[in-house]
Design goal:
The protein is α/β, with parallel strands linked by helices and 332 residues long. It has two domains: 247 residues, TIM Barrel (Alpha-Beta Barrel), CATH 3.20.20; 62 residues, Orthogonal Bundle (Non-ribosomal Peptide Synthetase Peptidyl Carrier Protein, Chain A). Helices cover 43% and strands 16% of the residues. It has an eight-stranded parallel beta barrel with strand order 3-4-5-6-7-8-9-10, surrounded by seven helices. α1 links the parallel β3 and β4. α9 packs across α10. The two termini are 34 Å apart.
């Protein structure tokens, strides 16, 4: 058994193929920092509106790298190639390792604008968007490679990932990540990993896989079954940045150790403090309520603890709740 080898994404070489997927509302600088500490090879920001960036409305905190991020990706969403081109030029000021086009978000407010998964309905437009982004990056953004994250199609009757990925490749994309669900599926049902295998066998550029990777074993199985060059952890990483070090250990040694409860809660507190440094204590405490639902998942007394955490309004209150003597074990 071996770890995923170094991976070339255009001119960028990453040390391995364990990636943190872009997730709106979750992959902030603070969380990405914890994932990098645990061995994530490449991390992605939350999705950023290309139009908002061009109009000066995108928050700086969405775009800046974490202090320990040597390489990261900025994910943009939009459906207008000229706007995406301008956004790439602006994003280049942050010196990201890659710039990603979101062609998979199923959220109504995104797809209503023709962006996200709606791009799957128009492979030609997707290709033109990638082409505009690649040209802008080469001319004005330091040459950061462009990647694309997409779905299998709009719905079960229009599974067209081959056509869309082919258009992206011909337009100059350096990597495609496939989440093999349709937009109509959202995050329900089962992801179709054979689509990843099929795409990996067809493209000249690397293919990353995403979807239903909740454990290190899932990551190893995805690589073995699909031949993908990289695995993107999404929901499986929430509340568990340790999944990157666990997966690396499994790939290298065939085993790994789960972190103790104290380590998980401690990671949550560090996440809170890092986030507070970025957005202020009040907002961070509110934002972290959803994160702690994940950090406390599966621990004994977790439900009771969560009912108290959702009322915590200061870092001190979180600390008082999370530094109590451990009650041990997992939830029954």
């Amino acid at each position: 058994m071996s770890a995923l080898p170094p991976l070339a994404i255009g001119p960028l070489t990453v040390p391995g193929g364990l990636f943190l997927a872009p997730m709106a509302g979750y992959t902030d600088r603070a969380f990405r920092s914890l994932c990098v500490e645990q061995g994530a090879d490449l991390t992605y920001t939350e999705l950023v509106s290309a139009l908002a960036l061009v109009r000066g409305g995108a928050r700086d905190g969405l775009l800046r790298p974490a202090d320990n991020e040597e390489r990261y990706g900025i994910q943009l969403f939009g459906a207008d190639p000229p706007a995406l081109s301008q956004a790439v030029a602006l994003a280049g000021a942050y010196k990201p390792g890659v710039i990603d086009l979101n062609a998979g978000c199923p959220v109504p407010k995104v797809v209503k604008s023709g962006a996200g998964a709606a791009l799957m309905k128009n492979p030609g437009l997707l290709g033109r968007a990638v082409e505009a982004m690649v040209k802008a990056s080469q001319e004005r953004a330091g040459g950061a490679p462009v990647t694309v994250k997409m779905r299998s199609g709009w719905d079960g009757e229009s599974v067209n990932y081959r056509e869309c990925a082919g258009a992206a490749q011909e337009a100059g994309a350096a990597l495609v990540c496939l989440h093999p669900r349709s937009r109509a599926q959202g995050y329900g049902g089962k992801s179709a990993w054979p689509h990843i295998q099929d795409l990996a066998s067809r493209l000249r550029i690397p293919v990353a896989g995403s979807g239903d990777v909740f454990t290190p074993e899932d990551a190893l199985r995805m690589v073995q079954e699909t031949g993908c060059a990289a695995v993107m952890f999404a929901r499986g990483a929430l509340g568990n940045p340790f999944i990157f070090s666990q997966a690396r250990s499994l790939f290298l040694t065939g085993r790994y150790t789960a972190p103790p409860i104290e380590a998980r809660l401690g990671a949550g507190l560090r996440h809170l403090r890092l986030l507070a440094a970025d957005i202020g204590e009040k907002h961070a405490c509110l934002e972290m309520r959803k994160h702690f639902c994940a950090y406390t998942r599966g621990i004994a007394g977790g439900a009771a603890l969560r009912s108290k955490l959702v009322r915590a309004e200061t870092i001190e209150a979180y600390e008082a709740l999370l530094t109590l003597p451990p009650c041990g074990g997992a939830e029954g």
